[in-house]
Amino acid sequence: MRGKRLLRRIAIAGIAGLAACSNTTTNSAAGGGNASIPAEPPSITREPFGQVGGIPVNRYTLTSGRAMRVRILTYGGIIQSIEVPDRAGHVGNVVLGFPTLDGYLNNTGSAKTYFGAIVGRYGNRIAKGAFSLNGNEYHLPVNNNGNSLHGGTTGFDTKVWQASERNDSDSVGLTLQYVSPAGEMGYPGTLTTTVTYTLNQKNELHLDYHATTDAPTVINLTNHSYFNLAGEDTLDIYDQKVTIDADNYTPTDPTQIPTGQIAPVKGTPFDFTSPTAIGAHLTANDPQLLLAHGYDHNWVINRGDNTGLVEAARAEDPQTGRTLTVSTTEPGVQFYTANFIDGAFTGTSAHSYRQGAGFTMETQHFPDSPNHPNFPTTTLKPGQTYDSTTVFAFGTK
Predict the structure, then answer these.
(1) What span is annotated as the signal peptide, if there is one (predicted)?
(2) Is 165 a catalytic residue?
(3) Burial bucket for residue 135 (CB in 10 Å: 0-12, 13-18, 19+)
C-alpha cells in the first residue's frame, strides 16, 4: 500500500526513472554563485512573536550581509526560515515551518513534525522509554511506537529559551540557554544547555551545543530542520541529489529502534556515497524502506580517527542550483524524508506540506545508544562538558 501511494506521488512529480548524477564540484557560499553578491555588515534584530503560558517569545532575524537571512524563535530554538539565493540571485526560503507561533504550539501528538527545533535531552529514540545508568533504571514517557522520541512528550522543543545576542564585524550570533531540572521527562541530573547560532558572511550557519550536568545523565542534541533547496513552497525533494559520506548505517526493527548492527550501504538503497536523487530508490522493495515508509535512518559517518569537524553530507537542487553542505563533530546523521506529512500542515508561504516536502540532516549520536554498548557513548558526567558543532553551509553551482 505504502509503495503504491509513494509511486503515485513520484510519478506525479515526474521523478520516475531518476538516476544518480555525476559528481560536480560545488561552489562554496563565499564563492561560486554568491561571489557576485556584495558583502554588507551582518546584522541581528529582535521582535515579539507571541507568548507561551504568559512567557514572551521573541523572533531573531540574523542576516549574513550576503543575501542570507535566518529567523530563529526562542520557543524551542526553532529555525523558522532560512532564506538563501539561487544561482540567478533569487532569494527563497529553504526550510519548512509555520508562519505563526500557534502553528508550532498546535503541532502535537503523533502528527508532530518538530519543524526546525532543538530536540533533547535525547534526540531520536530510546527503546521502550527505558535505560540503565550506573545501576539505576530510568523510565521516560513513550510517544512513538512504544518508544521515547526526541526527549519525550515535552522535550526541549517545547521550552522557551533565554537569549543573548552578539554582533561582530564578520558574523552575528544568538545564544539560547535552557536549564532542565533533574527528573524532567524522567532524565537524571540538572542539565544546563546552551545552543549558539552563528551566521557569517560565507553564508555558513554554525550550531554550537554545550551542556553540563550535576549528576550522570544521557544527552543527544540536534536540530530538526527540514530542507527543500528548491524552496519550501515547492512540491517535494525527490529530484534533489544527496551525498552522505558514510559506508555504513544502522538498520532498525519495526519500531525504528536500531538492531545494534552496523550494516554496509553498498548494494542497497542506502548508498549515497555518490550524488544520488532522493527519489531514485524510494520505491525499492527493501524491508528497511518499507518499515519507515521511506528514509528515516542513521548513517555512520566516515570519520576515521578524526574527532573534529568533518563534512558529512551534501545536497543540491538541479533546478535552482542551491547547495547545502553539512559538517559536524557528531558520529552519525539521521536522513529523513518527511514520510508522514500528509497535507494537513500549511507552511510559512501558505503552501500545504505533503509527503516528501523536505528532508532532514539530523547530526547526532546513534539512536538508542544508552541501550547499545557498542555504539558511541552518550553518557555525560559531572565535571564533563558536552560539546557538539554542526555547520550548514549554503552556496550555488
Answers:
(1) 1-29
(2) no
(3) exposed
Band (35; pLDDT cuts 50, 70, 90): low
Mean pLDDT of 176-191: 99
Q: Give the N- to C-terminal CA distance of the chain in Å, as an integer.
A: 38
| Among the listed residues 9, 45, 23, the one whose alpha carbon sits nearest the alpha carbon of residue 174 | 45
Q: What is the Cβ-side half-sphere exposure of residue 69, based on CA atoms within 13 angstroms?
A: 12
CA-wise closest residue to 371 among 280, 260, 206: 260
Look up the CATH architecture of domain 2-396.
Answer: Distorted Sandwich (2.70)
C-alpha–C-alpha distance, residues 151 and 153, integer Å = 7
Q: What is the mean pLDDT of residues 197-206?
A: 98
Please indicate if the annotation marks 139 as binding a ligand.
Answer: no
Q: 210 catalytic, yes or no?
A: no
3-state secondary structure of 230: coil
Specify the residue for cell string 553551509: 393
3-state secondary structure of 77: coil
Cα dihedral across residues 39, 42, 48, 50: positive or negative? positive
Identify the active-site residue in 150, 206, 224, 365: 224
160: DSSP letter: B
Spell out the domain ranges in the chain: 2-396
Instruction: Find out whether 90 is annotated in a ligand binding site.
Output: no
Is residue 225 a known part of a binding site?
A: yes
The answer to the question of whether 124 is labelled as a binding residue is yes
For the four alpha carbons of 341, 343, 346 and 347, in that order, the dihedral sign comes to positive
- For residue 343, the model assigns a pLDDT of 84
